[in-house]
């Protein structure tokens, strides 16, 4: 059933998110036959209203579509976002009306973390997520499930050379700010109200040297407890929402 023009989204929340925000991208919906609760009925009604073809199938048919995952008895085929490369990213930056807010992940290989980062990026209004092709989890079904629909709306630029992509951003006036536990200045004491790309490193290893060297400055998230660091998806959410908060504060006011 799968082809190059569609991919699968599974899980009730993730499918509902696409139906609510971009129903034209949903091509087909499969719902497990035994399931007939309020949430699945609501999903069917929303899909019917959007003119989506719905099939009632056995659970084993869903397993064949997406494998051994927690699909909650619902799978949808959706028209995927066009994959971005460096050129698509740069072209899109020229069309953004507000100062850019980008998230760069340097080597995040856990699909659950990547999915959670996508969810935070969508919630904070980030314009794109940038990842390297060779050291990153792929945006697959697991990522889409964890992202709860965000993977269908936040463009992901998978770049061959992350250092070169950062250089291109800087040439276009984007400030590149890395997160590091040893940075002298804190996230909250830094000026993030500017065209911005926030960089977070891999789980455990942090940013690569070439990535770190290209950052305009580094910031740390102050830690009050006993743990030494945050999960990368939590840190991404904290940093993105601090940048968004600073943009919402009017000059001379306190937020």
List keywords for this structure.
single chain, 255 residues, 60s Ribosomal Protein L30, Chain: A, Alpha/beta knot, six-stranded parallel beta sheet, 9 helices, 20% strand, elongated
Topology of this protein?
Elements: E1 7-10, H1 12-21, E2 26-32, H2 38-49, E3 53-57, H3 59-66, E4 74-78, H4 86-93, E5 101-106, H5 111-123, E6 128-132, H6 141-147, E7 156-159, H7 162-171, E8 175-179, E9 196-201, H8 209-214, E10 217-219, H9 232-248
Parallel strand pairs: 2-3, 5-6, 5-9, 6-7, 8-9, 8-10
Antiparallel strand pairs: 1-4, 2-4
End-to-end Cα distance, whole Å, is: 51 Å
Query: So what's the overall shape?
Result: elongated
- Helical run tally: 9
| CATH architecture verdict of the largest domain | 3-Layer(aba) Sandwich
Helix content: 25-40%
Structural class: alpha/beta
Q: What's the CATH superfamily of the largest domain, by name?
A: SPOUT methyltransferase, trefoil knot domain
The CATH topology label of the largest domain is: Alpha/beta knot
Domain count: the total is 2
Secondary-structure element pattern, one letter each: EHEHEHEHEHEHEHEEHEH
Q: What is the CATH C-level name of the largest domain? A: Alpha Beta
Q: Can you give the mean pLDDT?
A: 88
Question: How much of the polypeptide forms β-strand, as a percent range?
Answer: 15-25%
Total beta strand runs? 10
Using only C-alpha atoms, the radius of gyration works out to 20 Å
Q: Strands across the major sheet, in which order?
A: 7-6-5-9-8-10
What composes the largest sheet? 6 strands, parallel
Low-confidence blocks of residues = none
């Amino acid at each position: 059933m799968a082809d190059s023009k569609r991919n699968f989204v599974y899980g009730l929340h993730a499918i509902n998110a696409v139906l609510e925000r971009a129903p034209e991208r949903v091509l087909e919906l499969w719902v497990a036959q035994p399931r007939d609760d309020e949430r699945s009925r609501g999903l069917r009604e929303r899909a019917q209203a959007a003119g989506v073809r719905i099939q009632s199938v056995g659970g084993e048919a869903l397993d064949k579509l997406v494998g051994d995952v927690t699909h909650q008895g619902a799978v949808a085929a959706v028209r995927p976002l066009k994959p971005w490369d460096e050129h698509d990213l740069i072209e899109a930056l020229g069309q953004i009306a507000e100062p850019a807010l980008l998230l760069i992940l340097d080597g995040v290989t856990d699909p659950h973390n990547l999915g959670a980062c996508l969810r935070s990026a969508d919630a904070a209004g980030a314009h794109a997520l940038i990842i390297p092709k060779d050291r990153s989890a792929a945006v697959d079904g697991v990522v889409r499930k964890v992202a709860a629909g965000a993977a269908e709306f936040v463009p992901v630029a998978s770049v061959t050379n992350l250092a070169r992509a950062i250089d291109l951003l800087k040439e276009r006036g984007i400030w590149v700010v890395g997160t590091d536990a040893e940075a002298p200045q804190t996230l909250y004491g830094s000026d993030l109200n500017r065209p911005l790309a926030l960089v977070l490193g891999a789980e455990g290893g942090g940013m690569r040297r070439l990535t770190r060297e290209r950052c305009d400055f580094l910031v740390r998230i102050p830690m009050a407890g006993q743990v030494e660091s945050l999960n990368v998806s939590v840190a991404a959410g904290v940093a993105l929402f601090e940048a968004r908060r600073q943009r919402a504060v009017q000059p001379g006011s306190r937020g």
